[in-house]
Amino acid sequence: MNLRVFPTAQATAAAAAQAFAQAAREAVTAHGAFRVALSGGSTPKLMYRALRNLPQVPWKAVHIYFSDERSVGPDSPDSNYRLAHDELLTHVPIPEAQIHRLEGERRPLEDAARDYAARLPEQLDVVLLGMGEDGHTASLFPGTEALKATGRVAANWVPKLDTGRLTFTFPEINAARARWLLVTGAGKADVLRGVQAGEGDYPVARVQAPLWFLDEAAAANLGR
Ligand SMILES: O=C(O)[C@H](O)[C@@H](O)[C@H](O)[C@H](O)COP(=O)(O)O
């Protein structure tokens, strides 16, 4: 596994923010824009806070997408867009037209998935992801239909949450130039050990060549 391990969640988030800034500069130099998909979750939230204070991020050339969304509107406290907006996007000089949110309030959700797929660029530079304690990533939960989806974006019914989600599919995640997984906390240590050992059937194990940003607590059971 390609691991970067830091003492605390805060340090992990700060390192991921630095990596974001550097990747953005490199992408803008190479092809004039940085196209990145954001996620929800506790570690991304810390990263967004770190990122808004960093200098030298070429925000005017950054294009924001989302790797998943809950089935709620942009004002909901559960909205991944709202998290990114409140913690990051409202604090930086990014043109509004370059922020592409998933329409979690649309019904059927399939329509939102179809329209979002049509708006996606040919290739994303970086997809930022978290991981749940059941091994889900984006909104690709164990045993759900979207694990098999072949399009770019899927509407996914998640029985254990009794709700629908919008999510990038594995083909979309794996087509990006890079995939970063931000995972912190002792609650994630067992799943990570299983992923490393090739045990269990964790959705996150299907993310190809990820770069892992971990804290010591999450990495505790890994062979390094
Ligand atoms: O919308 C979501 O819920 C996320 O995109 C999801 O995939 C998240 O990243 C993981 O559940 C990890 O969340 P934590 O970092 O809060 O554990």
UniProtKB/TrEMBL annotation:
Cite the entry's keywords alphabetically.
Hydrolase
Q: Which Pfam families match?
A: Glucosamine_iso
Q: Which residues form the signal peptide?
A: none
- Annotated pathway: Carbohydrate degradation; pentose phosphate pathway; D-ribulose 5-phosphate from D-glucose 6-phosphate (oxidative stage): step 2/3
Q: Which reaction does it catalyse?
A: 6-phospho-D-glucono-1,5-lactone + H2O = 6-phospho-D-gluconate + H(+)
State the encoding gene. Answer: pgl
The terms under GO molecular function for this entry are: 6-phosphogluconolactonase activity
Spell out the protein name for this chain: 6-phosphogluconolactonase
PANTHER family attached here? Answer: 6-PHOSPHOGLUCONOLACTONASE
Q: What does this protein do?
A: Hydrolysis of 6-phosphogluconolactone to 6-phosphogluconate.
**What GO terms in the biological process aspect are recorded for it?**
carbohydrate metabolic process; pentose-phosphate shunt
EC numbers for this chain: 3.1.1.31
The record lists the organism as Deinococcus phoenicis
- All copies of the Glucosamine/galactosamine-6-phosphate isomerase domain together span 8-208
Q: Which family does it belong to?
A: Belongs to the glucosamine/galactosamine-6-phosphate isomerase family. 6-phosphogluconolactonase subfamily.
Establish whether keyword Ribosomal protein is in the entry. no
Source species taxonomy? Bacteria, Thermotogati, Deinococcota, Deinococci, Deinococcales
- Look up the domain of life of the source: Bacteria
